[in-house]
Amino acid sequence: MNRIFEARKSEFHFMHDISQYQDFFIDYLKKQNIHKEPTNLYEPIEYILGLGGKRMRPVLTLMAAEVFDTDYKVALPAAMAVEVFHNFSLVHDDIMDDAPLRRGQVTVHEKWNLNTGILSGDAMLILAYQYFEQYEPAVFRDLAKLFSKTALEVCEGQQWDVDFEQRNNVTIPEYLKMIEYKTAVLVAAAMKMGAIVAKTSEKDADLIYDFGLNLGLAFQLQDDYLDAFGDPETFGKQVGGDIIVNKKTYLYLKALEFSASEKALELEKLFSLQLEDNAEKIETAKAIFNESGASKSTQEAIEMYTFKAFETLEKMDIHAEKKDILRTFGENLMGRKV
After folding, report:
1. If phi over 0 gives left and psi between -120 and 50 gives alpha, with beta otherwise, what is residue 322?
2. CA–CA separation, 2 vs 291, rounded Å?
3. What are the residues facing 105 on neighbouring strands?
4. Quick check: 337 and 234 in contact, CB under 8 A?
5. Residue-level pLDDT at 235
6. Which residues fall within 8 angstroms of residue 338, CB to CB, at 6 or more apart?
7. Structural domains present in the chain
8. What does the DSSP assignment read for 13-67?
9. Which long-range contacts (CB under 8 A, 24 or more apart) does 141-144 make?
10. CA pair distance 204, 199, nearest whole angstrom
11. How many CB atoms lie within 10 A of CB 269?
12. CA-based angle 190:192:195, to the nearest 5?
């Protein structure tokens, strides 16, 4: 019996690299027959799904399946569900933020109209669920349960994010809970879906969820950091965007915590302004982030969550080489400039 198990383990010992998973997923995406009637409902869905992006979440689903010795092809419908849901949340986020652009292209509600953006987003949420129907009942149940929990948490995170814009007393634990729900839980769920499809043990499925959760937290904190201190050439977004819109990020909250009352008041005043020219505002805020120690503290938090993710790898019942692949993936994610 053990020999058969070992043979099955070694059969999928090989794993693909990230760019290959991206290609596999894009090929699968292109084969989906999304273009149906009414055109004004389905065309925006095709449009947003075709805008590209790094496809990080579906890649994680495919990767997790192969970590647990299952061919990535089995995980493609689950990966598609994750990507459709993620893009649904972007369509509705863009409406809430009144954003004109997404990935350098016109947003759905701007290209069509507000009602179409709402309705196409709603349809995407249902479409995401439909992809789970391709699995047998037990796998379908586990995927749907995780998906429902995650989808609700993403909505809760988004609401907290909106609430925090109106509040001046946001605490660091509250902020961390918000980014956990808004961003990290979907990264974690994407990985656990790969584990569920692979029918791995509950213990390992939970561990890879924790790996994804901690990596997702590190990723979002790094996004906050790069927004202020990233290289404009490589970041892909406007550097200082969070400062311009007075977003109370981890950097901002830590700077308030560490600053003397005079500096803290200056920062609070700075983050109440709406200016035409923001160059000076950005430089002043960045100087306070650096002088107060908030920049250093944010980098330490990124490192802490990354190491927490790596600690969960040690407990997983997978081949050492696969632990190395996941560790390298985490390191590359944390070494990004974009």
Report:
1. alpha
2. 59
3. 102
4. yes
5. 65
6. 226, 230, 234, 235, 236
7. 1-146 (1.10.600.10), 201-338 (1.10.600.10)
8. -----HHHHHHHHHHHHHT-----SSHHHHHHHHHHHTT----HHHHHHHHHHHH
9. 142/196, 143/78, 143/81, 143/193, 143/196, 143/197
10. 10
11. 9
12. 120
Q: Using the structure block, give the residue that is written with the tokens 């479409």.
A: 127
Which amino acid is present at 134?
A: Q
State the residue for tokens 């909250």: 253
Can you list the alpha helix ranges (DSSP code H) found in the chain? 2-11, 18-30, 39-49, 56-67, 76-97, 108-111, 114-130, 137-165, 172-179, 185-197, 202-229, 232-235, 241-244, 250-258, 261-270, 279-292, 294-315, 320-334
Residues 305 and 294: their CA atoms lie apart, in Å, by 17
Can you give the pTM of this predicted structure? 0.91
Q: Encoding tokens for residue 12?
A: 């999928």
Spatial neighbors of 172 by CB under 8 A, at least 6 apart, are 250, 253, 254, 257
140-176 pLDDT, tens digit per residue, is: 999 999 999 999 999 999 999 999 988 889 999 999 9
The pair of structure tokens assigned to 13 is 């010992």
